# Entry
Amino acid sequence: MSDLDDTLDPALRSWVESANEPLTDFPLQNLPFGRFRIAPDAGWRLGVAIGDQVLDLQTCGLVDTADMNQLMARGPAARRALRSALSQGLRAGSPLQSSWKEALHPQAAVEMGVPCEIGDYTDFYTSIHHATTVGRQFRPDNPLLPNYKWVPIGYHGRSSTIGVSGQSFPRPWGQTRAATAPEGSPPSFGPCRRLDYELELGVFIGSGNAPGSPVPIASAEDQVFGLTLFNDWSARDIQGWEYQPLGPFLSKNFASTVSPWIVTMEALAPFRRPFHRAEGDPAPLPYLDSPANRERGAFDIQLEVWLQTARMREAGHAGDRISSSNYADAYWTVAQLVAHHTVNGCALRPGDLFGTGTLSGPAPDQGGSLLELSAGGKQPFTLSTGEQRSFLEDGDTVILKASCERAGTRRIGFGECRGTVLPAAAYPA
Ligand code: MN
# Structure
């Protein structure tokens, strides 16, 4: 696990002035990695966010590749060395300022890409609050299934439709049949009518492990490159009909949106928290438990969901904040997910992505999905414009945000993960 080092000193200032603004997501202490290009026909480049700028890592001679997966594969020691060089060069008074100035681009002037090539994608279910609230809708007497406190529940997703913030996608088509439909009645076919988002964090794998070589929990975080925001869009009506007995399928893989900047484990080090289970809960099995995981396996990351309807957008309204939660409330840590995913010998590769699962908090207004906020669609809620929502309407934009704040440290943020629902396309003849 990473330690506090001088790159985290809250007193550090940058010669990039916008990085010194108190509310920037990208001060000198953050330095998240992403992929950008300066024109649609230009190649992707590797960059680091600093204030409202992107620093091109190749132009300033810090990396010899435009391949993020290669950088990820080099592991934590190489990443820390790169972070240290970046921190030194971007500090106020650095002799590198005059040459590195040439490597800066305004973020507003570049296009951000999905931050790496995502080979495999796995989605977990780590919020016990989400699992309990959703479980209660289907099984009022028995909301949490008996495996929940023993197994980090997950399923293998699909990477082909993961897009980057700014993504828009048409409302998906599919088969649905209401739970209340008479037994034996045929399903309907049409555009999804219960479209939802899921507030998640993405976990990007760094160096990975060989097939047949489980990663012990003590070194599990060495396999992690960093975290992003992640929206696992979900078609609840399609999900309700298809999910038994093998779990989610087409209700999930039509679109998922990731934020462009990967916040590294080093930048998150000041925001670690002890990881405790509630009194009376079973201890995790030994392969999912370690002193370090108990002492500092959790992360205090404040999460927010904003909804901007088409009407708000036309009126120049940034949207309503409809819920907030904290990653520290998750039931399983990043280290536990890596240890569990590899316990059977499954190989993780550089650039693989985990979704944490919907990150809901304990309070009713901390639901990380509309399924929770509208009680399965039964309790629509009213937005500041007077519009009502139980599920997403065409033209709705969902914006996820995250930040970390703690006394005596510099605030950092994740940027945004933004996506827009378009009307269903005509089904091809
Ligand atoms: Mn999910």
